[in-house]
Amino acid sequence: MNGTAVGRVENYGYGQMSVKVTIASGKIVGLKVASLTTLESYSQQLEQQVVPILKSEVLQAQGTRISALSGATYTSEAYAYSIQSALDQLHFK
Amino acid sequence: MIARTHEVMGTVVSYLIDDQGLTHEQIEGAIADACREFTDLDARFSTWKPESELSQLRRGGQSSPSALMEEVIDLCGENFELTRGFFDPWAMPGGFDPTGLVKGWAAERALRVLAEHGVINALVNAGGDVCVTPGASFLVGIQHPFEAEALCGVVNVTSAVATSGIYARGAHLINPHGESIAAVSATVVGGRLVVADALATALAVGGASVLYLLEEIEGVEGFFITPEGVMFTSSGMAFAEEGATASTLDLATP
Asked: CATH topology for A3-89?
């Protein structure tokens, strides 16, 4: 089975979308959004906040234990300078 | 707790394992097998190694994908639909690239390997994509997108957390809908890591349009930070420290 088909336009609450699917040998080999509209109303409802800055030297004052760090993927070099690296060293003790 | 790191998939995987009730041999066997799982998956799914199955697929030279490849392609399709196309491994320059999703999926598989060895309380962190054993609970710091030595939040993780953004690896995200990237950093907490991973990528790309989708998925919350430094959170997003001038990271006394 081979071919390409565009699905029907679906509502997803604040917007509409349709999907184009490409099939080769019965397997999905490509997906593409054929159309997408998002209403402004949801983004207008969102509450804006200032990003907190939790500095490690300040954070050291209290005792809650951080076990790991989540961030955009770091490379091996970036890891060496990361807080995760510091955490891993501490756990070895 | 035993900590171990493993360089693989172009990043560093950190293991944190509660060794209570397990012998030294059991722990070492568990870690060795989990690392082997990662190494095997890297060999299959690397876009850098020309002989990997994924590289062959990208060149169009492969007729029958392995069961693992089929599983990844299916997961990509499911997450494409879930994120309304904002997570789109088919839109990457250079062809189908499921790398982002594979990392979280591999972490889940490594965690399962640990569990098969009798580990009941553990965390696996694959370059910032974190999953923990069922029933476990770990505090995870979310890296601040603009301040190298700071966090922007602390979350209590009982299943998974993933963060995606453009600050660590340059502009490796693209918007399949042809618009600009909405966020410098996006975090999704809860559910399966492989899904949180895709949702975080989608949230970084789509911003409010994807945050809205999160509202409809049970057990999953998230937030994103715009290039201007404004933070938007889903309605149920809970930080471990409310008020977040928080003082929760104790690097001095583990």
From this structure: Sufe protein. Chain: A (3.90.1010)
